[in-house]
Amino acid sequence: MSLTNEHIREKLTEKFGELVSGFEEPYGLLSFEAPKEQNLKVLNFLYDDEELKFRFLTDLCAVHYPDQPGREFAVVYHLHNLEDNIRLRFKVFAPLSQPDVYTASGLFSAANWQERETYDFYGINFVGHPNLKRIMNVEEMDYFPLRKEFPLEDQSRSDKDDEMFGRGGTY
Amino acid sequence: MSEHHIKLPEGSIEKTTSTLNLGPTHPATHGVFQNILELDGERIVSTEQTVGYIHRAFEKLAERRPLYQITPITDRLNYCSSPLNNMGWHMTCEKLLGVKTPKRVDYLRIIIMELARISDHLICNSIVGVDAGAYTGFLYVMQYRELIYEIYEEVCGSRLTTNIGRIGGFERNFNDIAFQKLDKFLKEYPRVLREFENLFQRNRIFMDRTIGTGAISAERALNYGFTGPNLRAAGVDYDVRVHTPYSSYEDFEFNIPVGTTGDNYDRWLVRGKEMWESLSILEQAFRKVQDFKGTEAEVFHADVPEYYLPEKKDVYTKMEALIYHFKIIMGETKIPVGEVYHSIEAANGELGFYFISDGGRTPYRLHFRRPCFIYYQAFEELVKGGMLSDAIMTMSSLNLIAGELDA
Question: How far is A134 from chain B (nearest CA, A)?
């Protein structure tokens, strides 16, 4: 394996300078972030560069951090360089007030549905997406269910008379 | 109107296309998903896939469950090979928790995982046959899937949604019956697989139906995020077992079969060849497991009492086991803060788990990378311009599992 995490990091800082930050290597996987306006530039650079060749989008998803004002949503890309067999994780953060992130579906066809799924669950608006509509949930749904403000049912609630399923009722 | 437009005689009918709703519950789709097909006669002009009919919000559910309760959720992703998903999940947790499993556990896991891979490929390949009109093969190999299920049953007690293993290893050691059944499987299955292949591989009708249909180039397949047999059928030798070995796969000798054209026939062949490779891995693993003697042969889990759910009989008789049982069940165990991505080669491709822990008893965020969901979006490109009956076969040769699609 010729490509190392240090080298990728050097190449990225050389190209983007201050814009790429937060380099970490949790469990050996290089992880970094960039401003959301730069996401396509970074992805394109990673894709096109003769050495980096991150041309396989493994995974795309979002995370909701309600306690980080202005950085409520993280969109996480997992990329893979199949030739040198090295992976990396790239994050962009978007605010709750305006969760707009440029779509990566022009670069990776795989991003199309994954972005739709992310939109469906978190309401991230992927700017330029060819068909940004809900994919798992019904189209009439007016909220984004994987956001943290939608809790699941409290398992210890006692107001439910659900005898057949072992809750409530008389024993 | 272009100048090439053919002038139709007065009173003739203009050519129109028809719309066909294939699914959500159609016997030919082998799962709950809908396809809205625009047809010109029998040729497909465009398709629109609708998924989500069995969406169960697993990622949301997982945010409320302690780690050991997430295993049954993973069962229901690709339910044709649940043990693979279970193992993938256990290994993700072990990676986060820093648990190192003993070699014997790794080999036992490989036995279970390869059995699951064979049973999944077996279903997929025989269903492709069914869609081509050959029911016999499907029924014939079913009894060997049954034998695989019996082996699961000996190990964990259940058959389809297995919930097999635990963080750190297995819930119990494999018993003699399990090994006998495995031995029986290894002795009898090769002959059956050969017979099954003879039914299809050089069968004129089957070849005519599958060669050249549903093809995709390696470049497009990579761009679409294909993994697993579907990518390998297009000629890319990417296999997580080889590229990022887990569970001691590096100790095994096996080949990665690849195709060339990425069509239905190549997908069928790659899955067939992979079953042979899995058999060889199984034989090697079986031999390696038998090499453990004495107390070593009793090892079926890592020595990590704080994460490994103890055996029930120990809970009732031993103080320590009772404490750890209580702590694990109540979610009092220390879980490190961190982000981990772990992937395994599931039957359909790279099954990934992206697990963000904030140190709480449940994951802060858990995302499943489901291979099925990612490659199903290429369906339109695969079937456009082809015949409707070929689209049915493309669908089954992609091995679309609704559970994995929708999560």
Answer: 10
- The structural domain count of chain A equals 1
Hey, which residues 4-23 in chain A have their CB within 8 Å of chain B? none
Contacts of A108 in chain B (CB under 8 A): 223, 225
Same structural domain, B40 and B149: no
Lowest mean pLDDT among B20-34, B46-60, B68-82, B249-263: B20-34
**B126 touching A, CB under 8 A?**
no
**Is residue A86 in a domain?**
yes
With left for phi above 0 and alpha for psi between -120 and 50, is residue A70 left, alpha or beta?
Answer: left
Band of residue A171 on the pLDDT scale cut at 50, 70, 90: very low
Q: Is B255 left (phi over 0), alpha (psi -120 to 50) or beta?
A: beta
Residue A171 counted as domain residue? no
Q: What is the value of ipTM here, to two decimals?
A: 0.90
Distance, CA of B2 to CA of B6 (rounded, Å): 9
pLDDT one-digit tens code per residue, B317-345: 999 999 999 999 888 888 999 999 999 99
Q: Which residues constitute the domain of residue A143?
A: 5-151
**Would you say A92 and A43 are in contact if contact means Cβ atoms under 8 Å apart?**
no
Identify which of A123, A141, A110 has the alpha carbon closest to the alpha carbon of residue A62.
Answer: A123
A contacts of B222 (beta carbons < 8 Å): 55-56, 82
Hey, is the C-beta of A112 within 8 angstroms of any chain B C-beta?
A: yes
Is A87's CB within 8 Å of B341's CB?
yes
pLDDT band of residue B105 (cuts 50, 70, 90) is very high
Cα–Cα distance for residue pair B340/B343, rounded to 1 Å = 10
Q: Is residue B294 located within the same domain as residue B309? A: yes
Whether pLDDT at B215 is above 90: yes
Which residue(s) pair with A31 in the sheet? Answer: A24, A89
Which residues sit opposite A77 in a β-bridge? A60, A90
β-bridge mates for residue B338, sequence order: B357
Q: How many helices (H) and strands (E) does chain A have?
A: 3, 7
10 Å CB burial of residue B32 (0-12, 13-18, 19+) is: middle
Interface contact A110-B338, CB threshold 8 A: no
Claim to verify: residue B27 and residue B91 sit in the same structural domain: no
Which residues of chain A make contact with B365, given a CB cutoff of 8 A?
63-64
Tens digit of each residue's pLDDT (9 = 90 or more) over A23-32:
999 999 999 9
**How do strand A125-127 and strand B34-40 relate by DSSP bridges?**
unpaired
